[in-house]
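Intended use. Records like the one below are meant for learning the mapping from a protein sequence to its folded structure. Do not use them to infer anything beyond what is encoded.
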Amino acid sequence: MRRARVLTAAGLALALGLSGTGAWTYARARADDSLAYGRERDEALADGRKAIAVLTSLDASTRQRAERSVGNWRAVSTGPLREELGGTEAGTGASARATVTEAAVTALDTRSGTAELIATVRVEVTSAGTHKPATDRKRLEAVLARTGEGEWKVRALSAVPVTEEQATKGAKGATGTEEGGDR
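Structure written out for the chain above:
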């Protein structure tokens, strides 16, 4: 009987010690600056991916859908880009549906609320009167700004040019052979 009490007391002390250590570790991790920085980076990346997909998509099958697309552009943008997009005339014509295939935050300043993001985007463009889309790939760079509501919105968006060397490497990788030779 005495042995059972000693084992119970030892088990209880061990459980309390582990619980205390777990609580202390959790409290330290929750206040850790690098963890907060990582969360902010992840939020900027998620918001930036969504915004780039919206900004590179347009449903122009009807005038109303085109107006809705332009409204969506304004909703995910801020600053001069938002003002510039506000002057866009919505009309019918070719439609584009974009998917962000890869993205990464290249710079993040949590104090000023700015971030830079690079992304590759696959865009399927369907011309008016056709049903089969043509696919295009784009590389984009975005400057994001955190709004007062804590959302990340695109302040600037630009294409990243593909150099001749990069295009040659891409073509070589796609075909597996260099011009004039075999593998």
